[in-house]
Amino acid sequence: NFDLLLAHPVLDTVLGKRWLDSVCIHWSKIRSREISGWRLQPTIILRPANLDPNKKYPLVIALHGGNQNYEVFAKRLDRLQDTLGAIIAIPAGIHRFSEISNSWDDDTQCGGRKINEVIAELSQDLQVDSNDVSLLGYSQGSQMAYSYALKYPEKIRIVIAFSGFSPAVVSDEKLERASKYKVK
After folding, report:
1. DSSP at 163
2. How many CB atoms lie within 10 A of CB 74?
């Protein structure tokens, strides 16, 4: 994440602005050359081991932290689907900084579209209860989960946030709407 590196005041001071700029430019060129060969990042779906074909399961959409590998995040959540008795979807963050690193940033518009796509796709699955959708967010994913639930409270039942933060400013109107829809 070159923007993050360049904005870090300590790195600038310790390494020197010219050197840091040159390193970021060098690796940015390499990334630009290699980006077309990066593999696709489909949403990872974790299903309970003993699925009942006649039952609908809650959907938990898990949002990783910033500058994180979503596959590693999914491995850390493995077995949670059995514990919760839920289907868990782990999408890759919308901003891709390398073949393995993604971020949500504060881009709630694009992040919201991505979450909408995951909900729409999995709502086609007969085993998913599209009326029981929760967002689980870690760090930057927590902020995205809060922001999405406040914008679309009719779609989300629960927000589970850990090691994260809420949006800086939330209007009373959004909080009242979330309360009206009983978002927990």
Report:
1. S
2. 21
pLDDT tens-digit map of 41-85: 999 999 999 999 999 999 999 999 999 999 999 999 999 999 999
Separation CA 30–CA 9 (nearest Å): 25
Q: How many alpha carbons lie under 13 Å from residue 21 in its C-beta half-sphere?
A: 4
Q: How far apart are CA 85 and CA 79, in angstroms?
A: 10
Contact 6, 24 (CB under 8 A): yes
| Cβ count within 10 A of residue 40 | 5
Taking the C-alpha atoms of residue 144 and residue 111, their distance in angstroms, rounded to an integer, is 7
Mean pLDDT calculated for residue range 134-152 = 96
* Angle formed by the axes of helices 140-151 and 172-180, nearest 10°: 80
- DSSP reduced 3-state for 32: helix
Q: How far is CA 183 from CA 29, 120, 135, 142, 158, in A?
A: 44, 19, 11, 15, 6
Question: Long-range pairs for 20-28 at CB < 8 Å and ≥24 separation?
Answer: 27/2, 28/2
Q: Which amino acid is at 93?
A: G
pTM passes above 0.70: yes
DSSP 133: E
